[in-house]
Amino acid sequence: MSRTTPTLIGAFVIGSLVLIVAAVLFFGSGAFRENRLSVVSFFNGSVAGLRAGAPVTFRGVPVGEVKSLGVRVIPNTGDLVVQVNMELVPGMVAVYGAEPVREQDGIPDLVQRGLTAQLVKESFVTGLLNVELAFRPGVQTSRVGDTRMPEVPTVPGDLEALTKQLQTVDIAATLATFQRTLESLNAVLASREVGQAVKDLPEITGALKHALASVEREVTTFSRTGRDVLGRTDASLQKTLGSIDKLAINLDSETASTLSMLRETLANANATLDGTRVILDPQGQTVLQAQHAIDDLATTAARLRNFAERVDRDPSVLVRGR
Asked: Which side of the chain, N or C, has fewer Cβ within a 10 Å radius?
């Protein structure tokens, strides 16, 4: 029976380690094979809950991780900031239909377009923080500048912004005002008038219910009376409309009869005018006959005048004749 030698065991262990490393490199996330881009951000507030290895995300998609944290002093102002060094995986973001951009030049261009970093809660239970990258153009950012690595400006987190707002509130004055309000309310509630009003409330409620019932009865009675009046009015209106219809029919018939008589009268008047026109025509026979009669009358009148003159001069003419 052959015995296992230490050399064979060592070779087996080394081979196993090589296979494990190869599997990690082949099946892993590619962290050992991808190029990494180092960037930095500076946060003014507390970063409690942020740790090395925390993910850096863009809209929830992991695009890198936090490598280290440290406290830095800004020489010009003496302010303390927290420096967060991060590594991004450029291959996680691709622009379709565009030429590839150099990694070191890509971050400043994205910053000009509004790229910022913000601390967000990974879990409210554990209190761990992540770094969330997002485009926030137009917001107020914080940056140090003059860094060796590309810098991503930062914006306050939701909790930090709320804390800053609370710092501007005068808590003592607010509590004092609230206390005075409570005291005023207590004085009002403890006053005799309010107590009497509370005692009279059941009586007032009963009176109000009685008044509402009376109003409801009156409204019901008025509604019934109104419906009756409307019914009678409708009947009277129908009779009136019938009378108007009959009157219109009578007027139509009378108008037709009157128009017929008017047409007959106009025809008679036309005939009379035609006769008058014939009589009064200067060239008509009637006018000529009248003219001859007038001429004869004139001649007779002249002869009678001459005879009267002769009788006046010699009355014996009546006896003698000529």
From this structure: N
Domain end, chosen from 113, 145, 166, is at 166
What is 159-206 written as a DSSP string?
HHHHHHHHHTS-HHHHHHHHHHHHHHHHHHHHSHHHHHHHHHHHHHHH
pLDDT, one tens digit per residue, over 296-318 is 888 888 877 877 777 777 776 66
- Tens of pLDDT, residues 43-56: 988 888 899 999 99
pLDDT at 41 over 50: yes
Beta strands in the chain (DSSP E): 37-43, 55-58, 61-73, 80-88, 115-121, 129-135
81, with CB counted inside 10 A (0-12, 13-18, 19+), is buried
Note down the domain range covering 157. Answer: 31-166
Asked whether residue 162 falls in the same domain as residue 180, the answer is no
| One domain for residues 158 and 221 | no
Is residue 65 over pLDDT 90?
yes
Same domain, 174 and 160: no
Domain final position from 257, 272, 298: 257
In a domain, 263, yes or no: no
3-state SS class at 142? strand
Q: What is the pTM of this model?
A: 0.43
Where is average pLDDT lowest: 49-58, 69-78, 194-203? 194-203
Distance CA 280, CA 240 (A): 57
Q: Do 246 and 289 belong together in one domain?
A: no
What's the structural domain count of the chain? Answer: 3
Rounded CA gap, 170 and 240, in Å? 81
> In sequence order, which residues have a C-beta less than 8 Å from that of residue 158 and are 6 or more positions away?
120
